[in-house]
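Re: that backbone. Tokens:
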């Protein structure tokens, strides 16, 4: 009887272990770093900071803890910080989705999610995006079954005495935005820093 009792206790403990492991695992959320070539886009130490998770630059947004759903439905605009910004210079911040409606057929590529000009470098150093809002922030909302989307942040130095504006046509539509023309029209040149994160629909 004593042996049988010992066996029963051992079996009970073994049955409890998986649930304990599962419970511990459910509290662990790993933000996986982007693989090549997506990782190459990240340069200049640009930080994109959301509540609860911190800097999501150059990473996948995991599904655990409801992070993808919160990103799409609850969280507002992130803090964007560039520690190397020149205090007295102005910058232009662009946030776009180059994978709209999906990465295989991005016919609406460079869907504009956020566009702000006249950002002072002193504000940018501490993550305050204050300036002229040309496109209000729109959270990432990838369609179901469209796979991962890249959400890219591009930071440009704004030429002195240059007023940045959208054309009437661009104001009417967020999708299929000609980012290249916009950059060339205002002489923005190459981004001084850029980063991105990848996420998909929270139901997928």
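Recovered sequence:
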């Amino acid at each position: 009887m004593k042996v049988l009792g010992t066996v029963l206790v051992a079996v009970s403990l073994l049955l409890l272990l998986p649930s304990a492991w599962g419970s511990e695992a459910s509290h662990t959320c790993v933000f996986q770093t982007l693989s090549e070539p997506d990782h190459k886009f990240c340069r200049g130490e640009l930080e994109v900071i959301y509540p609860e998770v911190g800097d999501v630059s150059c990473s996948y947004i995991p599904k655990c803890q409801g992070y993808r759903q919160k990103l799409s439905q609850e969280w507002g605009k992130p803090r964007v910080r560039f520690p190397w910004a020149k205090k007295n210079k102005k910058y232009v911040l662009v946030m776009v989705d180059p994978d709209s409606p999906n990465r295989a057929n991005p016919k609406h590529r460079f869907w504009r999610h956020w566009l702000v000009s006249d950002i002072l470098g002193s504000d940018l150093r501490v993550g305050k995006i204050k300036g002229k809002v040309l496109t209000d922030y729109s959270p990432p909302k990838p369609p179901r079954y469209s796979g991962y989307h890249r959400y890219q942040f591009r930071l440009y130095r704004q030429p002195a005495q240059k007023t940045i504006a959208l054309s009437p046509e661009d104001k009417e539509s967020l999708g299929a935005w000609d980012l290249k023309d916009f950059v060339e029209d205002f002489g923005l040149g190459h981004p001084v820093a850029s980063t991105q994160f990848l996420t998909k629909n929270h139901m997928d």
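Residues 1-26 have pLDDT under 50 and may be disordered. The first strand starts at residue 47 and ends at 50.
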